Amino acid sequence: xxxxxxxxxxxGVTLGLGAYVWVAAVRNVxxxxxxxxxxxxxAGSGGTNLGR
Length: 52
Fold this sequence. Notes:
This protein is mainly alpha-helical. It is built from 2 helices and no strands. It has helices at 3-27, 29-46. The radius of gyration is 21 Å and the shape is rod-shaped. The N and C termini lie far apart (58 Å).
């Protein structure tokens, strides 16, 4: 396999992996925000929140 072909293949795999990770992250944004909000609400209900 020529070096140019190997570089193109590596570039394609890298772009594909990046697109996969990006799509997975975008699909889970709502779930992550809800979980973080629930954690903040649970932490804020019993303490004094001195750091905020």
